[in-house]
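Retro notes, structure queue

What went well: the backlog is down to a handful. What didn't: a couple of records were mislabeled last round, so from now on we paste the full input next to the output in the thread. Example, using Transaldolase from Tolumonas auensis:
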Amino acid sequence: MEFYLDSADLNAIERLARFMPIQGVTTNPSIIAKGGKPLAQALPALRSLIGPDKILFAQVMADKAEDMVKEAEQLQTLDHQLVVKVPVTAEGLLAIQQLKTRNITTLGTAVYSPMQALLAALAGASYVAPYVNRIDAQGGSGIKCVQELQQLLTLHAPHCQILAASFKTPRQVLDCLLAGCTSITLPIDVAEQLIRSPAVDAAITQFNQDWHQAFGA
Ligand code: E4P
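Corresponding output:
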């Protein structure tokens, strides 16, 4: 089982990594923009925080395959171990093929259907990231997508691994893990909700009150 954090917030990653077994950090352009630091600063800072043995992901923004490949190579000059996220479009599939021949590890991202992800896997992606909450928000089923995708990969592209992404609730995380998914990336707020809840706080407060009423300080 692998947990990743979908964030570039150094303080939050450090805080959560103390009690969660984090395998690495995933980012996308929105996450990097929110952090306010360009990739040239953000990626080295994230690498320095997570250390050399963890996995770091960053995404290309170009539209054309040729430009995606150049961008991926530039990103790897910032972090030699970087896994490059490539949106699974027709151009993205071409880029994934070309990056495979250059030995650059890729993750097919912006996945909204099992077949889309299978094509990324067949093009040479090592990971694919179905967007669980965004699929749910469209009226689909993110979990069903993950389940069907897992069957497809097992049958047709066993080299490729699902890294389920886009979670908004702990229930989505639980359902995804129960469906057999073994790698997920979580935004900070959802990761925190896995351990924090008002009910837990209220229970502990009540235990403390009862103890102090009976025995004093
Ligand atoms: C992962 O590849 C995506 O960048 C990310 O998980 C999307 O999550 P969001 O739907 O919460 O923005």
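Agreed that this is the format going forward. Reviewer comment attached to the example: The domain at 2-215 is CATH 3.20.20.70 (TIM Barrel).
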